[in-house]
What does this fold into?
Amino acid sequence: QVQLVESGGGLVQPGGSLKLSCAASGFTFSSYSMTWYRQSPGKERELVAFIGTSGSRTNYADFVKGRFTISRDNAKNTVFLQMNSLKPEDTAVYYCRSGFGFWGQGTQVTVSS
It folds into this structure.
């Protein structure tokens, strides 16, 4: 069955970095775009970054441009989100989503001193 398993979240100080991973299984990973979303308490889920099937096409929300980088390894069926210069407002549960609408369970990122 289809699975998306996020990992890499945790507690980090402002200005720090984290790299999230989303391991996919149960479908032909290289055939689908992938997207990272996040949701903070009391807020709607919002798109963070998108990557096309080959990895050559990416898009970012304005609030992460220049700080976050999305990438993928089709040989390992994994999509990544490198997050640098983290801010307290980046605190959220981060989810990956497949191009056909399947969601992972999320990983918590907390940015706090």
Summary: The mean pLDDT is 97.
